[in-house]
Design a protein that fits this description.
The structure is a single chain. This protein is of the alpha/beta class. The chain folds into 3 domains: about 10-240, Rossmann fold (3-Layer(aba) Sandwich); about 265-345, Tyrosyl-Transfer RNA Synthetase (Orthogonal Bundle), CATH 1.10.240; about 365-440, Structural Genomics Hypothetical 15.5 Kd Protein In mrcA-pckA Intergenic Region, Chain A. About 45% of the residues lie in helices and about 10% in strands. Strand 12 (about 425-430) and strand 13 form a beta hairpin. Belongs to the class-I aminoacyl-tRNA synthetase family. TyrS type 1 subfamily.
Length: about 450
């Protein structure tokens, strides 16, 4: 897996917006409060001295995704307000998996989950500061669940949960009413997560858990357990699920999740994802996924209204978030690749990884070294349906190889013009692109 997630300017460059009375007010303005245990008490708590809070991430994949980024940035905002974060990567809860709305999760092996724990810990570390008075701490719930016997788990933890309450949880209820049903393992997930909160309260005096609002049942299982066992009041904050205004699911590109690991979602693809944000969604995305000030976001909101064709807000969003995840160098390369594809830059200056990422979604063809004639290339790449159509494209001045116009229908690409020794980018007209890979002799 890639170890390329970086904060380009350093965590020290990030700051909360001082125009808000307190961090709670900023969280609300940014649209990060969907539900909470006690809003007035939480605002008072977060406006006071440092508290310890936590958020959990389960290793159900080898990388975090954009949904997780909402939580990471929420954690960072609370840390910037002076509070102490506990980042929990669930070595034990990841072995079970929280219930999905539709079907049972596939259980991964202990070895796989253990490997993914390491990947996720490495990613989380790049979004929080592990230095200073309110430094973050990494925790793994396998540390306190692994030594516990099943009998102890049932006696010490399970006895505090009521089945009637558990089956009323939204996801559990939906699964119980489905053909799939729900296994005892996934049904017990909320008990495991509740135990996490109890353990972190005992060890670190943790008094706040954050998470997505779809996890509200799991979040409150912890607050209730602490209340029953310790007689103390602790809190939970549920952020809203980010949705697109057109009803499509946020965080998906070409039907696939947008991952934070650059080998799973390239910096180019990440940049393009944010660049394609609709006008109706871009301001909300700026609030949630950037540290831009209220004044700057309001300025960009005006730009959306007055000159939407310039896409200033989208470009600012794409640059900011891609830089946050992959660094400014990778982001600059992604922008250069996008420009070069359409003749506004030099394709030869792109490194191979960036070139491959930029052409990944294009129609592609593989040809032999003896098929480098422009007519054969246009047909092989399906930019032209027939050789006669290809000749017409060339004669009309609409054929380009690596952004160089080809005007001779008998032209043959020289092997020295291949990008990185084996790639070509073909263009018909201004916008129709294809990639070609030349196979080894």
């Amino acid at each position: 897996m890639s170890d390329n997630i970086v904060n380009p300017e350093g965590l020290s460059a990030q700051q909360n917006d001082s125009s808000f009375a307190n961090i709670w007010q900023e969280l609300k303005w940014r649209g990060l409060v969907q539900v909470s245990t006690d809003e007035a008490e939480l605002e008072k708590l977060l406006a006071g001295g440092p508290i310890t809070y936590y958020c959990g991430f389960d290793p159900t994949a080898p990388s975090l995704h954009l949904g997780n980024l909402v939580q990471l940035l929420t954690m960072r905002r609370l840390q910037l307000a002076g509070h102490r974060p506990l980042a929990l990567v669930g070595g034990s809860t990841g072995l079970v998996g929280d219930p999905r709305p539709t079907a049972e999760r596939t259980m991964n092996t202990k070895e796989t989950v253990g490997e993914w724990v390491g990947y996720l810990q490495g990613q989380v570390q790049r979004f929080l500061s592990f230095e200073g008075e309110n430094s973050a701490r990494m925790v793994n719930n396998l540390d306190w669940t692994a030594p516990m016997s099943a009998i102890d788990f049932l006696r010490d933890v399970g006895k505090h949960f009521r089945v009637g309450t558990m089956i009323k949880k939204e996801i559990v209820s939906s699964r119980l009413n489905s053909d799939e049903g729900i296994s005892y393992a996934e049904f017990s997930y909320q008990v495991l997560q509740g135990m996490d909160y109890l353990e972190l309260f005992r060890q670190y005096n943790c008094v706040l858990e954050t998470g997505g609002s779809d996890q509200w049942g799991n979040l409150t299982s912890g607050t209730e357990l602490v209340r029953k066992v310790e007689g103390k009041t602790v809190h939970a904050l549920g952020t809203p699920l980010v949705t697109n205004s057109d009803g499509t699911k946020f965080g998906k590109s070409e039907g696939n999740a947008v991952w934070l690991d650059g080998t799973m979602t390239s910096p180019y693809a990440m940049y393009q994802f944010w660049l394609n944000t609709s006008d109706a969604d871009v301001v909300d995305r700026l609030k949630i996924f950037t540290f831009m000030s209220r004044a700057r976001i309001e300025e960009l909101a005006r730009a959306v209204e007055e000159a939407p064709h310039k896409r200033e807000a989208q470009r600012a969003l794409a640059y900011d978030v891609t830089s946050l995840i992959h660094g400014t160098d990778a982001t600059d390369k992604a922008i250069a690749a996008s420009a070069a594809l359409f003749g506004q830059g030099d394709l030869t200056e792109l490194d191979e990884a960036t070139l491959k990422a930029a052409t990944e979604q294009l129609p592609a063809a593989v040809v032999s070294p003896d098929s480098l004639g422009i007519i054969d290339l246009l047909v092989a790449s399906e930019l032209s349906k027939t050789k006669s159509e290809a000749r017409r494209t060339v004669s009309e001045g609409g054929a380009y190889v690596n952004n160089v116009k080809v005007t001779d229908a008998d032209a043959v690409v020289d092997s020295k013009d291949l990008l990185h020794g084996r790639y070509l980018v073909l263009r018909r007209g201004k916008r129709t692109l294809a990639s070609v890979e030349v196979s080894a002799v």
